[in-house]
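Today's session is about reading a structure prediction critically. Students often jump straight to the picture, but the first step is always the sequence itself: look for stretches that repeat, for charged clusters, for runs of hydrophobic residues. Only then move on to the predicted structure, which in these notes is written as discrete structure tokens rather than atom positions. Here is the chain we will use throughout the hour.
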Amino acid sequence: MNTSLKQILEELDSTLANAIDKLDEAVTYGEHLTDEEFDVIQDHIDTLESIRGEINE
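Below is the predicted structure for this chain, in token form.
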């Protein structure tokens, strides 16, 4: 199996997108989140989006 760098990056991008979606769901439907928990999750989302931006450049 010969996987190209482009394929690996596309798969990583997809994985990050799914992770971002799940974290968004946690924020949206997390009725019992404290402000601190919300901020931590949002920080993770921001970090993952930043990584995706680097991958897609």
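Discussion point for the tutorial: The two ends are 26 Å apart (CA to CA).
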